[in-house]
Amino acid sequence: ADIIVVAHGQANDPFWSVVKNGVTKAGEDTGANVEFRSPETFDMVQMSQLIDAAVNQEPDGLVVSIPDADALGPSIQRAVEAGIPVISMNSGSDVAKELGALLHVGQSEFDAGKAAGEKLAEMGGTKGICVNQEVGNVSLDLRCDGFAEGFGQEVTVIPTMNDPTEVQSKVRAALESDPDVDTVLGLGASLVGEPAVEAVKAVGREDVLVASFDLSAGFLQSVADGDAAFAIDQQQFLQGYLPVVFLALNAEYGLVPGGDVPSGPNLVTQEAAAQVIDLSAQGIR
Amino acid sequence: MSAENLSQQDERIRAESLATKLMKKPELGAIGGVVLVTLFFLATADSAMFTLSGIMNFMTPAAQLGILGIAAAMLMIGGEFDLSIGSMVAFAGMVFGVFTVNLGLPLIFAIPLTMAFAALIGALNGAIVLRTGLPSFIVTLAGLFILRGASLVGLKLFTGGSTQLRGVRDAVEGDFLAPLFSGDAFTGLFGWLASIGVIDSFKSGAPKVPGIPVEILWFVVIALVATYILVRTPVGNWVFATGGDTNAAKNSGVPVRGVKISLFMLTACAASLVAIITVIDAGSTDARRGFMKEFEAIITAVIGGCLLTGGYGSAIGAFFGAIIFGMVTIGLTYTDFDQDWFQIFLGGMLLLAVVFNNVIRKRVTGER
Amino acid sequence: MSAENLSQQDERIRAESLATKLMKKPELGAIGGVVLVTLFFLATADSAMFTLSGIMNFMTPAAQLGILGIAAAMLMIGGEFDLSIGSMVAFAGMVFGVFTVNLGLPLIFAIPLTMAFAALIGALNGAIVLRTGLPSFIVTLAGLFILRGASLVGLKLFTGGSTQLRGVRDAVEGDFLAPLFSGDAFTGLFGWLASIGVIDSFKSGAPKVPGIPVEILWFVVIALVATYILVRTPVGNWVFATGGDTNAAKNSGVPVRGVKISLFMLTACAASLVAIITVIDAGSTDARRGFMKEFEAIITAVIGGCLLTGGYGSAIGAFFGAIIFGMVTIGLTYTDFDQDWFQIFLGGMLLLAVVFNNVIRKRVTGER
Amino acid sequence: MTRPIIHMESIKKHFGNVIALNGVTFDVTPGECHCLLGDNGAGKSTFIKTMSGVHKPTAGEIFFEGKPLSFDSPREAMEAGIATVFQDLAMIPLMSVTRNFFMGREPTKGRGLTKRLDIDRANEITMEEMRKMGINLRAPDQAVGTLSGGERQTVAIARAVYFGAKVLILDEPTSALGVRQTSNVLSTIARVREQGVGVVFISHNVRHAMAVGDRFTVLNRGQTLGTAVKGEITSAELQDLMAGGQELAQLEGSLGGTI
Amino acid sequence: MTRPIIHMESIKKHFGNVIALNGVTFDVTPGECHCLLGDNGAGKSTFIKTMSGVHKPTAGEIFFEGKPLSFDSPREAMEAGIATVFQDLAMIPLMSVTRNFFMGREPTKGRGLTKRLDIDRANEITMEEMRKMGINLRAPDQAVGTLSGGERQTVAIARAVYFGAKVLILDEPTSALGVRQTSNVLSTIARVREQGVGVVFISHNVRHAMAVGDRFTVLNRGQTLGTAVKGEITSAELQDLMAGGQELAQLEGSLGGTI
Ligand SMILES: Nc1ncnc2c1ncn2[C@@H]1O[C@H](COP(=O)(O)OP(=O)(O)OP(=O)(O)O)[C@@H](O)[C@H]1O
Ligand SMILES: Nc1ncnc2c1ncn2[C@@H]1O[C@H](COP(=O)(O)OP(=O)(O)OP(=O)(O)O)[C@@H](O)[C@H]1O
Ligand SMILES: [Mg+2]
Ligand SMILES: [Mg+2]
């Protein structure tokens, strides 16, 4: 079977590279011919064109992430009209059915942020910052919004560029200029989580809670060592793996699960961290 | 005056083949690259790529990029850069979204107002460049950040906190101007062609290609108009002169200030045209629209033969440059290459296409 | 020759104040901007920004950017661009990581090998530019994509699937060269200063600022060396000549090919120096390191007064340009402004700083 | 004497701390050729640039046809009827000869939206005007950057003459020209002068100046040394003045007085 | 006659479809000044550019001191002892006079890592050499772009003379110079020639050519019209040849034969 995956995150993004690894693994396991495609930046216009390109090749199944239902809707509907089974993953759980997708595998970004916020508030956080390395990327913005809602206290979004040194300096600046800040949530483990831990160390404030979305071996090590609170894992390997398997089975036997599959959120805390470090280093978690 | 009236034919000119004459034109320099890239994909890509729907599929992004690229090429010929056009796509998209969704204006007002807004900002860019004498690179770089930030702030303000503004498609539904800026043209024709089986259709009977996406028409028309202006009007001459040597142009009586400001307004308007088309098509806009497009527009112009130093280039070159870029970025999805290799491939193809142009041109014109 | 021996003092020269003489130097052009930005933050930012630790905090990213910016400035003076340095940071980081972690080489081999690798690619860039006669913009743009893609492919290959290669810190731990490329310098001095209370310390007694991050020292040293080379050596003269007018320089006997290739090698080496420092500091490297840094490096050089057309600029200018850029990006976090306004602010401050430089310079030198 | 077209009064021009002109007075009347002479660096080019709107004088007044006036741009000066051949020629190397020739004043045909460059007529005029000056161009679409030094200079002169209206300013127009082209340019000057145009002619060649000049003003180190009328001054005297009163190097072959 | 330093045999040079040189033969011996004359666009500059390594000839042979040779770059020609003043001067407007003067051949002091530009000596030499040519520079660090046309040309000449070794090629060196500077340049040519340097001198001024030339070669439309030795030819004949045998325009003031 030919299965094409179109995602909004790039192959060199640590999070999405794990999704891609899941896709590849599923291809190997099922014998399906899978392709992973993504635009070069968070670009909904280009992504819709990639979906169109996929539809033109008339694959046996199409997997898409849907961060912007308005922009991607027509292309997805075109796929459905063309008789291609579509499964959505990662984002878009609320619109998947409407657009004609068979089911959704993933986690709502907003809910994940909310779960993290609730946990951090419970751990004693009173004033938080949400470090966003790609402001305007709707799925990242939703994480911060969810965090603000779940946290229930004051939350400031700190926009940064894509550079760990700069992230570290900015987190330091935020902590130094406002001593009340006691909670840091990063939206990416290696790019934000790790430098944030360094920044907290540099200002000498052991009381600051650091949590981060997604996993990286370095950040998990910090969690295991007690330098960071937890990592929010949506087991994105599943988001790549399951839809491909489902579609492969669908192509072969016409099988399809009855409902959405929530892949997360799953908070990785100190106890669990050590076990997943190795898997993370291999790009599986 | 000497009484002689030498034969027009100079003995110091060798005969020149038609191929040479054509290749000397910068307009045609980029064609070699298009041919090379096409051949490459014919050999490696899924045959779906060169079906009608496949062609429309890669021409659509090429067209959107090309509209920016042609404007950027004209500005570059005039000796300046505009790094703010990518952000302008987001900003104009936001403004347009607010006009249509929040204020509920019909397109006949929303579009000219958006354009006017953009042109104003373009003129401001130009005025700052001229007034301060700073390089436009740095002035429009500030514009890049400011407009991107303003889009974010504006979107949050008008949507009540989100960075995405939705509902544009509904808002413009049924507007008599909408078909000019969204969807496909010649749908009737294509439906008929499908019904008689000339073009492919889905199982449902709908044609696979419902029509020509309007941006492709805009792209072609803009390329033709820009070429006409550059090659056949006094203004075109002024653009070349201004970019070739601002001082010499000014001393020869070219109104360089006017030329530069108009060009900045032009790029801003091109950006807002792309914004309007993509926003209506997508039905939504967000704060990252047009990210890095300024860069891609410049790439397009350079692939098409424009000199970064100004004074040389063509709109048709940028036209082919955009097609090369669009074909390479979308083409990979039709091949079996792993996505991880995408960037290596993109870089390699760009370089190959440009080197190829160059080799062909030198071979044909006999330059050393 | 005429017997006259006119008084050296020409009656057609007016006296010139020291300020004028200084401001005429491009080296000092960017100082005005630094002063302006400093004043702005003194007025608006939390006082923590200008404590010792606050200064180190914004100087660290400024230093990393500045190392690239100075190299980019030299290349720009020589008339070329290198858009591949950002990707080169990722690529050299990957190569360095593989040498230290996978192959377990000590730094004394790993660093020169990484540099040699980078220099080779730089030389290749230069050779392609010279050989094909294409603009370096387009050649190194291909490099940007190719190196970025190669980092991804390489990282996945060497880590078995992850985009992050870790364990570098452990691998270089205890290496005698490590203190040169990571951590802080003068820690003893700072510890002593803290113990006598000259600088702040934590409750634990450790100084708040353990020392000067090594990248800042590299930054200062490179700025000085680059300035010396540009201003005081024949090679510097060749760089200016090559960028000012390649043809005239070649006709005057300047080895322009050698100059250009060396400059491309230099930018590649600067990128790999930054890669080595950041990789050891972070202990890991990933496929997105250095993203957009080529762009920021060019911005830095232009803020510092380099002309995009080549032949004019300075290393000290890029030095101050990097400090302005670092201060502005980090500074806003110290203020009470809404962070959504970050980009608007960044753009506005950049523009203001550069305009201010310009106004000051014109006022002082009396240019029209 | 008729009323001067342009009268420049005590013009000063400073560049930063360099004083290029320190009070120069000069005028040109219709139908005369007024030669501006002087040593290298005397300020001749700077002076005519203030006349043609390129520089704004630091001090001093300009009267155009009796009215005080200051040109804000070369375009304004051109529209007032001043055509200039600058020493650096003001040409764009990458553009074709025709496009340079008509730069800023392109001939058009059609009207409204179809108004466009009349490229055929432009080519024809260019070839014709160049031929009048003694240069047979190979093709009007050759890039100016590939022309020889003299061919390039001829384009600039032909352009100024073609568009010249009231005043024609020529800054060392014959410096790179061959004998035939030089004699054409000089006779062209004589011709337009007869048509009532005022000509300002800068040259280092005393013979050329004497051949067509009616009045001679000599600049030295940014100041006027004085103005002489034709017939009141000999070649040798003029040459002495131009050299700034300093003796000339001795040459074995000897140049017989005038260089 | 002594053996020529450079002998160029049947040189052809094409630019795309333009034939600039169509078989030119030329040589220069030590201690002579060989003038290259001809109409605008005859190919003089192109010819000397093939001599100084800028262009590679399309066909033809170059012998340097008897050995067949082809320079791959101007630097090689320079190292072989050929110094050239190009018609476009080959100077960088944004750089200072001194830096232009020594471009590519900078004087240094110190050794090893402390080897650096000897900027003081360079400044001194520049000022001194310029003064010898009759130009008193205001300051050696003035940008060349702000010099007057003649000042700029003088820098190029002074540079070539200062570094000149075996052959000195001057392409219309005096075109923008004042009378004093011209006489200095001509006497400089006479001086270096006496020192055994071979000089190639291009000029449109018959008087200048006659004053210093030993032999005269005239080019016309890319071909040699012939070579004459001093004394065998009169000014008027030479001028006729230079004009390509076409009659000159008539001037009311008349130029008395030679322009
Ligand atoms: N932009 C400038 N900045 C500084 N000095 C300048 C500038 N322009 C001209 N000068 C100086 O002003 C003086 C006069 O220059 P100008 O070009 O007017 O001389 P000129 O009489 O035309 O000489 P030539 O006969 O050599 O062309 C020169 O010494 C020159 O160095
Ligand atoms: N790069 C080039 N491409 C095309 N044609 C060229 C090029 N360079 C020179 N030519 C042509 O070759 C001919 C000879 O030019 P060259 O510069 O050698 O003339 P010249 O004898 O030096 O004339 P002048 O006395 O005016 O300086 C000219 O007609 C010119 O147009
Ligand atoms: Mg002058
Ligand atoms: Mg010549």
TrEMBL record, chains B, C:
Membrane topology (UniProt): Multi-pass membrane protein
Predominant subcellular localization, coarse grouping: membrane
GO cellular component, one term: plasma membrane
Location of this chain's protein in the cell: Cell membrane
Superkingdom of the source species: Bacteria
Molecular function per GO: transmembrane transporter activity
CDD domains per UniProt: TM_PBP1_transp_AraH_like
Keywords, alphabetical: Cell inner membrane, Cell membrane, Membrane, Sugar transport, Transmembrane, Transmembrane helix, Transport
Keyword Cell inner membrane: yes
InterPro entries xref list: ABC_transp_permease
Membrane spanning stretches: 28-52, 58-76, 83-101, 107-130, 137-158, 178-199, 211-231, 261-280, 301-329, 341-360
Task of the protein: Part of the binding-protein-dependent transport system for D-xylose. Probably responsible for the translocation of the substrate across the membrane.
Record-given protein name: Xylose transport system permease protein XylH
Organism: Paracoccus homiensis
TrEMBL record, chains D, E:
MF-aspect GO terms: ATP binding; ATP hydrolysis activity
UniProt-listed Pfam families: ABC_tran
Keyword Nucleotide-binding: yes
Annotated SUPFAM superfamilies: P-loop containing nucleoside triphosphate hydrolases (SSF52540)
Occurrences of domain ABC transporter (ranges): 6-246
Keywords: ATP-binding, Nucleotide-binding
InterPro entries: AAA+_ATPase, ABC_carbohydrate_import_ATPase, ABC_transporter-like_ATP-bd, P-loop_NTPase
Protein's name in the database: Monosaccharide ABC transporter ATP-binding protein, CUT2 family
Organism of origin: Paracoccus homiensis
Species classification: Bacteria, Pseudomonadati, Pseudomonadota, Alphaproteobacteria, Rhodobacterales
